[in-house]
Structures are given as C-alpha cells and as structure tokens.
Amino acid sequence: MKSLGNIRRAFAPWSDPSAKPFIAFKNVTKRFGHFTAVNDLSLNIYHREFFALLGASGCGKSTLLRMLAGFEQPTSGEIILDGTDLSGTPPYKRPVNMMFQSYALFPHMTVEKNIAFGLKQDGMPKDEMVERVSQMLKLVKLEQFASRKPNQLSGGQRQRVALARSLAKRPKVLLLDEPLGALDKKLREETQFELMDLQQSLGLTFVVVTHDQEEAMTMADRIAVMSHGKVVQVATPAEIYEAPNCRFVADFIGDVNIFDGKVTTASNGAVEIAVDSGFTVRTASSGAPAVGSALGFAIRPEKLRVTRAAPANASINATKGELWDIGYLGDMTVFHVRLPNGNVVKASSLNAQRTVDDPFTYDQEVWVSFDEDSGVLLRD
Ligand code: ATP
C-alpha cells in the first residue's frame, strides 16, 4: 500500500464521514476595529486529536485559540464544542483549559500550590485536591520537586508544572500557545514526545498554536496552515509536506524548489511543462490543464538527485548545472546547483556512509534529475 509518509498512529476520524467533530468553528470572523484577524473561518477538530495551528506571526492563530478558550468573542460565526454552542459561556465554565506561552506560574507559590490553585478556587474538598495534585505531579514526573518554587526549577520543569496545572481540572480540551517556546532545542524535542505520550494516555484533545513547523509536524495528527486569518490547508503532516495544495503552503513548510513554466502536452493523467529553467518537467496531473497555461511544479530538495553522469533519460525531469555551494551538515549534505538560466536549486542527500569515494567539489558540472512522481503541480 502506498501512503504519504509514515503514519504515527491509526487515527483518522476526519476521513470518516459519519464521525462528528468535537470542536467546530463555523464561519468565525473576529475583527478588532477595522482589522480582520480571523476571516470567515470554518474548521473541524475531532475528539482525541492532536491538532496544530501553524502560521506566521500575526496570522490569527492565537486569536482563534483565545476565542475557543472564551477570552475573546467572535464578531460573527459559531464555535461548537461537544455539540454545544459556546457563545455566552464564560471561560471558567468551558471544559477547556489553556497553557500560556509564559506559563504564568505564581512565583511565590510552591509547585504543589501552583498545581492546586485552580482546584482550590473551584472549592474542591481538601482530600480530593491532595490526591489530584499528587496524580498530576506523578504524571509530569515532578514528585520530588513538589515544595520548590518556580525559580528553583529549570525551564523544562517549569513547563511541566504549567502543564500539570492546566491538566489538573481535567479539561476535555487543552489549548497550548507555543508550549515549548522557552525550551532549548534538545529539551524541546524530548518534550514534544512527552506531550504526545501524555495526550494519548489521557485521551484528551489538544490544540496547539505554534510557528515552528517541525514542532507541528512531529506532534500533530493534523495541521491547519493559516495565513491572514484564513485556513489555507488542513491535512496530516505528510500531506502538507508531500502534497501542499498551493504555492503558499509548499513554500511555508520545509524547503522547496519551485519551477514555473507553460504546459506543452497534457494527456493520460500526465502533463509536460517547459519550465523557465530550460528543461521539461513531466509529472502526474489530475485533470488536463490547457496547453499553454501557466503552472508551477514544486519539488523538495531530498527528491532531487545530483550526479556527475547524465541520467538514462536526460530529456525529461533532468537538467545540467554547476555545483555552486556544498553544505556539509553531518547527517546530510546540501547542494546548491546553478542552472543555465541563473536559478539556483537546492538538493540534499543523506550521508548514510562515513566516507565518500569520489566527493563532489565546487564548480563541477553536474546533472540534477528526479522521478516523475516526486513533486507536485501548483495551480496557484
Ligand atoms: P503570533 O505568532 O505573533 O502570536 P498570531 O498568529 O497568534 O501571531 P494573533 O495574536 O492571533 O496572531 O493576532 C492576529 C492579528 O490580530 C495581529 O495582526 C494582531 O496585531 C491583531 N490583534 C490581536 N489581538 C488584538 C487586539 N486585542 N486588538 C487589536 N488587534 C489585535
């Protein structure tokens, strides 16, 4: 069976037409004065889904999260949670909790008291509260830090206290705004897996806002890529990466080479494009674009092959170029190849062996080639 990428878990309620969404944004718009932060946006999120909102700064992702939490009211549209319209429900009555970027821990309170804070405010009986706090400490592996204050903890430990505090009230949905922003790279990667394990073991729905695409790709079941208050594509990480639905998404996620050109032939589900870089791209196409129409073709660097010898069929999906730059990154090497029209393409190859028999050097003439099914057509 062919599939786009490896699948993290067998969970795909969005492809089951009978599955009801747990959270539904219906034509939601949010205006601040004359500025539209969220623009007629509709989106479904499913029970137990780890959902990521991804987009550049200012695209409206935090506003969307804040409306779900109840800190902002939509200007128009509806937000439905578990079958109930949330309008008019104040934040503290929503089965939703939010973990903020800054963690917002109380500096004068111990870890234990920070976690107990919301429970105490809700008037939870003492015995039950002690039991719940101890469960939470265990969950985030901070039992031995219960009586420390936040300033006696590392960044990662503080992040776990904030997580424990936001989970203590057992919300149905946890909203996380840049949850790992304050952690260094290594800790961030470890914590991403911890968050995924926690979300699955608790059976909760997580909605995370991030501008870090790798983080979204690693953790999320599905990603919504946002731009200017709209969702541009909602799909699994592999679909977003391997089958972006437009130029914006192709360019926003990961590295990509985009070749623009005009259709020369289109038949039998395949299309040929004479691209501006001076060669012919042949690739699969659903529908038959008109001969002469303008199309783009996007291909990721790891799908390009760089070779000294010409490929077997050098007239299709292949071009000559000059090796312009070589970047050795340890696990892989990145090649910048300058094509005859001056465009530079990026190719990458894994360094699976420690040594290379006949290494590439700058300024060499090379061929760049790729397989027919290794890129996608861009219609806009
Ligand atoms: P970031 O990653 O920088 O947090 P974001 O995608 O989360 O960005 P939002 O915080 O949702 O963006 O903001 C979207 C837009 O709405 C921004 O242009 C912002 O300036 C504007 N905005 C947000 N809150 C308000 C407000 N209370 N009043 C006026 N404008 C606002």
Automatic annotation (TrEMBL):
It is an enzyme of class 7 (translocase). The keyword ATP-binding applies. The keyword Cell inner membrane applies. Residues 23-253 form the ABC transporter domain. GO terms for molecular function: ABC-type putrescine transporter activity; ATP binding; ATP hydrolysis activity. Gene3D superfamilies: 2.40.50.100, P-loop containing nucleotide triphosphate hydrolases. Belongs to the ABC transporter superfamily. Spermidine/putrescine importer (TC 3.A.1.11.1) family. This is Spermidine/putrescine import ATP-binding protein PotA. It comes from Rhizobium pisi. The gene is potA.
